[in-house]
Design a protein that fits this description.
Blueprint: H1 2-12, H2 27-66, H3 71-85, H4 88-101, H5 106-119, H6 121-128, H7 135-148, H8 152-178, H9 185-193, H10 197-211, H11 214-226, H12 232-253, H13 259-279, H14 283-293, H15 301-328, H16 332-342, H17 367-390, H18 394-397, H19 400-406, H20 412-438, H21 444-481, H22 487-513, H23 516-545, H24 549-553, H25 555-592
Helix pairs in contact: 2-3, 2-4, 2-8, 3-5, 4-5, 4-17, 5-13, 5-15, 5-16, 6-11, 6-15, 7-8, 8-11, 10-12, 11-12, 11-15, 12-13, 12-15, 13-15, 13-16, 14-15, 17-20, 17-21, 17-22, 20-21, 21-25, 22-23, 22-25, 23-25
């Protein structure tokens, strides 16, 4: 940081040299105006982004997760989502979570990253339209919507509009502060020196890295152009430098994150630097193209520059990012392989120590994404329960020798113990993670979903307890009997076990695909299986009454096994009911909107 500040001070030191023109400039107020305007700009952008994410965040994550299998669609989608939420960083954060949650592959995310860069150009285009005169009106309307609206959607939209107004008010402050520099020759000479591509790249990268926002730096460049202080030839290298400088932001944000986030940051760096290295050799051609496409203003000198250049720089920014995206789009698989070579998968030792795979503490402040990560970790819990349930019946149908033959390295009970330990560990950590999410600013629907997920986690943990807590006593009891089930009784237990296994498989599918039809099928089968369990229980009692020796000897174990399977089926249906309630609330809220 000290090095960057030193370079910046050295680069602007001629401005403070003794000069007759400098006498008429109040440097204190100029610097205060610039820094204050920049502060308003950054604060407004943050508030605008937060508001838009709250309005569209859940829907944006659903769209992104569903429509990224085709590269062209991913590119357009990344541009659209970033345009809506006005933050490529927010889009990247969503992508990281989707890759981490297994909703898309890293290769699929690359096209969306390229599209996100295109989406950021909208900010520059809006700034170039000089909407600063309406800044206070935006702030007023946004404030009234935030304070007096009863609907969350309108309040969040008001926050976004107010942030938009603060952003433009900051632009106005910076623009007014820079007016004295229009006649200050040392500063004009410095701006002309920026037509050197290498110097423009360096300053653009350093300033963007310093303020941690390429959009903010682009805004400053356009403000300079609006005062007639910057030519298009000087503005293009600065914009290129901003694309390199924003890689610093991506790199810093990936520190301490999961491996998927680091890969996204590396891809972002390769993509942005690669695009600049291609286009830096064609600045004159790009300049000619932009001038040809952009409107021509009347006048001459500084006045003409002030009228023409802002729009030209915004257009150059858009053309550059669209072109780079289209150039790199066919090579996403190649880029993916390069990134995986730079940062390969870690070799994880397989062991019995329980760990979380998907929970990311850095995403807590992004509730829509954090909920998705918790959801994915819960899907992992269902898979573990499925494995526990799969071996649930085996020890009751085999003697001790057969158990040892099937599980030579790890006894069945040790396997169940290990998985139960994982379930308990995940229940504690997922619940704690959900509690942290609940402390964030949530929409009503998000709050309901968080507490519904807590309920489902507890039900999953209870299923694990049923399998683990009572099976030990039953296995020991069955072995002491040294008596098999009757053939009909054994067939009934196997059949009902298979049906409950299908239920947990349906639950896993419903949880993974988030489809209401899958959930409803679980509930329909639940009612059918409850009736079937009653029939099997009565059939067993009939065998006992008819003095079937095997049925009498194994009566207690048979009845308790059937009861355990019934309880597991009930808890599976309870989880499905909670899922159905979430989907129903989501449907009702979308209809209201």
């Amino acid at each position: 940081m000290k090095l960057i500040v030193s370079i910046l001070l050295f680069s602007i030191s001629p401005l403070f040299a003794a000069s007759e023109a400098a006498v008429d400039i109040n440097w204190t107020f100029l610097i205060m105006g610039l820094l204050g305007g920049l502060s308003f700009f950054l604060y407004g952008m943050e508030k605008m982004s937060d508001g838009l994410k709250k309005v569209a965040g859940d829907r944006m994550r659903n769209i992104l997760a569903a429509l990224t299998k085709h590269r062209v669609v991913g590119l357009g989608l990344g541009a659209f989502v970033t345009m809506v939420i006005q933050s490529s960083s927010a889009t990247t954060v969503m992508l990281v979570s989707f890759v981490q949650a297994g909703l898309m592959t890293f290769t699929q995310s690359l096209a969306v990253i390229m599209g996100a860069n295109i989406g950021t150009t909208v900010t520059a285009q809006l700034v170039a339209f000089e909407l600063t005169d309406y800044a206070l009106a935006m702030i007023t309307i946004g404030f009234m919507m935030t304070m007096f609206s009863k609907k969350d959607t309108l309040r969040h939209a008001g926050q976004a509009l107010m942030g938009f107004g603060v952003l433009f008010f900051g632009m106005k402050l910076m623009s007014e502060s820079m007016k004295p520099l229009r006649t200050f020759q040392p500063f004009i000479d410095l701006m002309e020196g920026l037509e050197n591509p290498a110097l423009g790249l360096l300053i653009g990268a350093l300033f963007t890295g310093l303020i941690q926002s390429s959009s903010a730096f682009t805004g400053i460049v356009i403000v300079l152009a609006q005062q007639g202080l910057l030519t298009l030839d000087a503005g293009i290298p600065l914009i290129f430098g901003a694309n390199i400088g924003t890689c610093i932001t991506a790199g810093l944000s990936s520190i301490g994150t999961v491996r998927g986030a680091k890969r996204v940051a590396i891809a972002h760096v390769l993509f942005n630097i690669g695009g600049v290295l291609i286009f830096i050799w064609f600045v004159p051609q790009l300049t000619d193209l932009v001038r040809w496409l952009s409107p021509v203003a009347a006048g001459s000198g500084t006045e003409k520059l002030a009228l023409e250049t802002p729009r030209q720089i915004a257009n150059a920014h858009t053309i550059f990012n669209i072109s780079v995206g289209l150039i790199f789009l066919p090579f996403t698989k190649v880029l993916s392989k390069i990134v995986f070579k730079i940062l390969p998968d870690e070799k994880v030792e397989q062991g019995v120590v329980p760990v979380t795979w998907h929970l990311d503490e850095s995403q807590i402040s992004h509730p829509a994404i954090a909920i998705e990560l918790a959801h994915t970790e819960m899907l992992r819990m269902i898979k573990i329960l499925g494995r526990m349930l799969d071996v649930f019946l085996r020890p009751f149908l085999a003697d001790r020798e057969e158990q040892d033959r099937i599980y030579p390295h790890l006894s069945l009970m040790e396997g169940i113990d290990m998985r139960e330990s994982k379930i308990n560990f995940l229940e504690q950590h997922v619940t704690a993670y959900l509690f942290k999410i609940s402390r964030q600013e949530l929409s009503d629907l998000q709050a309901e979903e968080v507490f519904a997920l807590m309920s489902m986690v507890k039900d999953m943990e209870t299923i694990g307890d049923i399998i683990h807590g009572r099976i030990k006593l039953l296995i020991a009891k069955k072995l002491r009997l040294q008596e098999p089930f009757s053939q009909q009784g054994q067939n009934e237990l196997i059949d009902f076990h298979i049906r409950v296994m299908k239920q947990i498989s349906r639950l896993k599918s419903a949880f993974s695909k988030q489809k209401l039809k899958k959930v409803e099928k679980v509930l329909r089968k639940d009612m059918k299986y409850r009736t079937l369990e009653t029939e099997y229980r009565q059939a067993h009692l009939v065998r006992v009454q008819s003095e079937n020796i095997e049925s009498i000897a194994t009566h207690d174990v048979h009845m308790e096994l059937m009861d355990l399977l019934k309880q597991i089926n009930v808890y599976i249906s309870e989880i499905a009911k909670t899922m159905k309630d979430i989907k129903k609330n989501d449907y009702e809220e979308n209809n209201e909107k």
